[in-house]
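Journal club prep, notes for RB
We'll compare a predicted complex against what the paper describes. Inputs for the adenosine-5'-diphosphate case:
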Amino acid sequence: MEIHKILQVENITKTYGKGTNKTEAIRGITFDVFKGEFLGIMGASGSGKTTLLNCIATMSKPSTGKISLNGQDTALFSGKELADYRGKEIGYLFQEFELLDNLTARENITLPLSIRGVTGIQSEKELQIISERLDIVEILDKFPSQLSGGQKQRVAAARALISNPSILLADEPTGALDSKNSKVLMDKLSSINMEQNETIVMVTHDANAASYCSRILFIQDGRLFHELRRNVKTETLTHFYERIVTVVAQLGGGSSNVL
Ligand code: ADP
Ligand code: MG
């Protein structure tokens, strides 16, 4: 089977501000993401995780280095290519859901399609498929204020996935959920990854959520610190969880050469 490299992050740095206000959020990070991977990114608060996702999403521009999707340099996208990249190739899931309060779940989910002029039967069909996968068919006519946190995040996931993006980027998607709802969300994302071969890049603090990943990059002070891989066929979530917790403990100690 051909292994397809979807995303290439090549030696990127990101510096905010100037002079005494300068923050080097990313100090040189390189990695590839392959089609169908479920990549986790872990690291302490302030280590540059959100900055990295925002650079991949083209919401922020790296100071140096290159990010390519399917072999194309994202910095060179403009006009329609850039709009397609943001609206179609990339799905983004936020910690705080970011649903529009005055739209129903159905309208929130189909919004990315409406923006691209996809409506009617085509939109209805995509809505049906993604709502079944996320088990939200029964709540489509409710407004966000009528939904629990877990339901809101599954609606947000449906919105992020309805355009069948090349990559789903998720920034702490379980950060505002209790452990039961976190597990429901992770089970759904994991099946979408395995059954639909959807590529996911997920930032998380949560070792339970991270244990669903097939590979995890650990970031410390804007640099890669360690990498873990799980053989998804043979290693259990519990065993991988224990290995993750061990690395997280090392990260906390700030000792970068013990592993
Ligand atoms: P994380 O998501 O891992 O918590 P961030 O990527 O949000 O980390 O932040 C990394 C560093 O960059 C932090 O020191 C943060 O304060 C700084 N930073 C993030 N965004 C900005 C910004 N827009 N302007 C200035 N500094 C920023
Ligand atoms: Mg963050």
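Talking point for the session: Residues 255-259 have pLDDT under 50 and may be disordered.
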